[in-house]
Please model this.
Amino acid sequence: MRSLADLIADGVQSTRVLVRADLNVPLDTSTGDSIITDDGRIAASLPTLRALIGGGARVIVVAHLGRPENRREPSLSLAPVAARLAELLGQHVRLSTDVAGPDSRAQAESLTDGDVLLLENVRFEPAETSKDPELRGAFADQLAALAAAYVDDAFGAVHRRHASVYDVALRLPHAAGDLVRTEVEVLDRLTGDPARPYVVVLGGSKVSDKLPVIEALLPRVDRLLIGGGMCFTFLAAQGHDVGGSLLEEDQVETCRGLLDEAGDRIVLPVDIVVADALVADAQLKVVSAEQIPGDRKGLDIGPHTVAAFTEHLKEAKTVFWNGPMGVFELAPFAAGTRGIAQAVADVEGLSVVGGGDSAAAVRQLGLDESAYSHISTGGGASLEYLEGKQLPGLAVLDEASS
Ligand code: ADP
Ligand code: MG
Model:
């Protein structure tokens, strides 16, 4: 894989370089404006952009925001992202009104050395995510025509066979950005020969999303601690009633099989914070995980679970954590995630946090980010990498430049 440093050493002065960045930040649209609630991904993209700017390149950034249903949605314009990127870079960032059309071409041509142009949300173009290679290819041709080189710095998207991630790399000399390289290096330490005990903490909402990674990790880990919304399908598999908590009925059998296979390596919560509704002023109660009342929802792990998980994490030499332990976005249900985030921060060894919401939780709950060895910007991508899957966006970077 060619590195950004190699590309810059070969000379990028006055060269238009297309950079795929992951600027998919969470937005609060409740006030009618789109307010960025966590700019971690924008901040993470800065080193690669600064290196290119420093090398005198003319930088064109391509990125997506949210999931527009294949059409322009004003609330998913990259305008607020361009503004925040400009603030963080300390220089003007232009924004094109189309993705790779006439305005993008005109703006790209008028760039001078060190300028930055952000293309409008790439997912406004249906071809970006199309399953049809010809449609994607035609769009990738347009993107490739904007620049003379391509840098992929969007680790969070490398598991997607999308035009701006995959097809464009086939069409331009390419290199991996610093973010992609760092992510791969850290994840390789987890898939290689991790120092033991190796403890993985998984949470988040959907167990079906995470079953493949659980299956792949189970033979390799010493403990798998499960919290968040996904723990209830496991509790149900043990025969417990989970009340109104998240439950994926069709996954109960699979979870039962995993529990049988894992023995005591899978650790489930012993207590749960329940409420009658998912509201900020909910009436809370902590109950045994085996006795969730029928009319209550489990919305966080309880204090005894935090203590038990913390004991396992204290012994760990390698930790990977993905998925909040509860609905941390609401203060009453944030304690479990805060407790685990703290315990992972205290790990003496390699501590890796993966997942968009998990990374956002670390920052929102005011934890010291530098206490972790690495905070991955890519949720799905890091999970698929740990599953041992080949990721299209990485495989294409390994191929020789055209
Ligand atoms: P990540 O982005 O870190 O991979 P996920 O997207 O899998 O994490 O899950 C994050 C979401 O899971 C959060 O929005 C959180 O509110 C939700 N969640 C966690 N615990 C629960 C629960 N007990 N019930 C419902 N949702 C939950
Ligand atoms: Mg998420």
In short: The chain has a mean pLDDT of 95. The longest helix spans residues 40-54.
